[in-house]
Amino acid sequence: MDAVQFVLEQLKEKADATYLKGMARFGIDSSKALGVRLPEIRKLAKVIKKDHDLALGLWDTQIHEARMLASMIADPQQVTPQLMDKWVSDFYSWDICDQVCGNLFDRTPFAIDKAIEYSSQEEEFVKRAGFVLMAEYAIHIKTAPDEVFINLFPIMEREAWDNRNFVKKAVNWALRQIGKRNITLKVKAINTARNIYNQPAKSAKWIANNALNELISK
Question: How far apart (Å, rounded) are the C-alpha atoms in residues 131 and 121?
Answer without folding.
Answer: 11
